[in-house]
Amino acid sequence: MAENIKGTGRRRRHASNAETHRSRPAAKGKSKKGRTKRIVTTVISSLVALVLLAMLAVCVVFQHFYGMMTISDGRLDNSGTVVTPDSDTATEDNSSTLIYSDNVYNILLIGSDSREGSVYGLSDVMLLVSINRETKQLFMTSFLRDIYVDIPGYGPEKLNATNIFGGPALTIDTIEQYFEIDINAYAAIDFISFVDVVDSLGGVDNIELSESEIHYLNQYLPEINRLTGYPESSDMIYDGPGVYHLNGRQALAFCRNRYSDTDFGRTGRQREVLASLWDSLKDAGITELYSVASSVLPNVTTDLSQSDCVSLLMTVAQVRDYELISQAIPAEGTYTFDTINGMSVVSVDFDANKAVLRETIYGE
Fold first, then answer.
1. pLDDT tens-digit profile of 109-141?
2. CA-CA distances (angstroms) from residue 50 to 45, 55, 256, 269, 361?
3. Which of 39, 302, 309, 352 falls 20 to 30 Å from 20 in CA-CA distance?
């Protein structure tokens, strides 16, 4: 009996040792898998944390820059009062007649002649930037300031008076009414702020100046120098015709000149400067873009929403390679120069110009 118990005991201890011996590799493998799993989990968690931090940083930067701009529906006057046309002559809803495409985004750039840091002066620059994602084209379309229209709520006037009467929103309403194109948003800047925009991008390159353009640039420059705190004679150009690099004040003087030829020539000069600035933006690095945004955005008034800005930023990589097309409205052969009520105006065949815009911007 004792021997059996003793033997059984030895066998049990032996079996127990065997089991322990067999279980060690399994425990080791399990431990290794556990460590691997923990490492993978840690790496994934770290990556997720980095992505979240990067997204947070992007959001913070975006909010910072978006907050620099003045956000307005465009219907405020200089005193901050909402401008409303008389109720009996208010703008009609013409949205059903507007041409629209999911592939086209239109933003109206407005340059005001205000000297007081406001965008609600006469709009001497009304330039529609149109992005056509289907045709991969980028259009710059200037609307001449002297186009004769019946401004909703105010009566017959030049197109550039819409901005001083009712702000950018009235300018948009009027252009939409007469040309039947859907304008998604606007961005406005006053003339003096335009100087800062150009200088923040290092000026404009390869601007060819004629003798007449140099003469009138020098005529405009003293006032601009005085308004921006420079001696009146600063940066005058005394050399002959040729290709020049222009700083912000010189570029503004160049863009304002309409005496060398006509307002068609002036809008052409405006588009030439903007095309040069666009080329500079396309080649700019992150640091330079950050500096430009910090300088430019505080001078901008717009009704772009945050989602609009995000969408535009996401398309920048594609748009930079789009074909750039420049044009003016009214198109050649669709207008006459007239004098009405003592005003020199441009009388326009609006139906013909609607057709031009549908064909060029929308590809119809």
1. 999 876 655 567 788 899 999 999 999 999 999
2. 9, 9, 49, 47, 42
3. 39
